Amino acid sequence: MRPFLFSLLLLACTARAEFTNEQQQVPLEVLPTDASKAKVVLLAGTPSNKPGQHEYFAGCALLMDWLKDMPGVAPVMVADGWPKNEAVLEGARSVVIYMDGGDRLSFLTPDRWARMKALVDAGTGLVILHQAIDCPPDRAADFKNWFGAVFQSDIGCRGHWDVKFDAVPEHAINQGLVPFELLKDGWLYNLHFAEKGVTHLLACPMPDSSRKSEAAKAHAGRAETVAWAFERPDGGRSFGFTGCDLHGNWAEANQRKLLLNGILWTSKLDVPEKGVNSETTPDALAKNWDRKVFLKKAAAKK
User: Fold this and answer.
1) Which of 26, 94, 120, 276 is deepest in the core (most CB within 10 A)?
2) Where are the beta strands (DSSP E) in 190-234?
3) What DSSP character marks residue 120?
4) Is residue 68 within 8 Å of 12, Cβ to Cβ?
5) Are 227 and 202 in contact (CB under 8 A)?
6) With contact defined as beta carbons under 8 Å apart, do 1 and 300 qualify?
7) 90: number of Cβ within 10 Å
8) pTM here?
């Protein structure tokens, strides 16, 4: 038999095997009964990456619990990236997008893209987290108009490391924040930002070894923006944060405050002077993780 040499093939393929027993207890796509409250829709992406990373379902479930404690807010959580009942999106004051980006974005089909555009045109608030800020190149112009920024591989960089935010500029989303650190999280930076309407909220130094693009290498040592606010020309508001890769960092009160403040701001609700306070526990952080199916094919020799 002729010898064949197969190169190492590692497929980190993840899929929704099924909801866990815990996840089955989380209310999904439950419409608010009080129309006076601001509806916030949380779009949690499909399972991705290793356990403890990209825990979109668990992260959105935490956000939903914290938002329920806020007067005047009615959170609605959606699994697998897009609602089965699109009526969920009707009248939303803000939509939170927490999922894989690029070709795995949940709203790239023409009908869903049109629905997203309609939300933008209606002035709906938008919150976009982590890899969701990455989109196919042919959608980049719309993304920048919708979110105030977009990640593209021509200049953008990404990776995992510790960061420290030494400065907290004044903005409603930053109310109550103090300088803080996030450990071993995943970051996207050197984004394409909109020319007008963007306020840079949090920036930090990045390892120069992570600057893979020539455009990024030209700015060695520069603090890079990873959180921003965007006042859109249509009157809507958007907020982005490229962290939230590592689920354990929801234990950091400043990260929780940043996200909850951002959701309020994009919903055009008042942010408390000291920001939104929230509590969590190790048990709460350990709940609702995805059951991830990893397929691995090792090299074979004959």
Assistant:
1) 94
2) 192-193, 198-205, 223-231
3) H
4) no
5) yes
6) no
7) 12
8) 0.92
Model pLDDT for residues 100-135, shown as the tens digit of each residue: 999 999 999 999 999 999 999 999 999 999 999 999
Q: What percent of the chain has pLDDT over 70?
A: 91
Are 276 and 70 in contact by the 8 Å Cβ rule? The answer is yes
Question: In angstroms, what CA-CA distances link 282 with 58, 247, 285?
Answer: 13, 11, 5
Which one, of 251, 231, 9, 212, lies nearest residue 125 by Cα? Answer: 231
The count of other CB atoms within 10 Å of the CB of residue 273 is 8
Please state the domain extents for the chain.
23-285
Helix (H) or strand (E) segment spanning residue 6: none
Pair 173, 258: CB distance under 8 Å: yes
Q: How many CA atoms lie within 13 A of 39 on its CB side?
A: 19
CATH of 23-285, one of 1.10.10.10, 3.30.1330.30, 3.40.50.880, 3.40.50.2300: 3.40.50.880
227, amino acid identity: A
Model pLDDT for residues 67-109, shown as the tens digit of each residue: 999 999 999 999 999 999 999 999 999 999 999 999 999 999 9
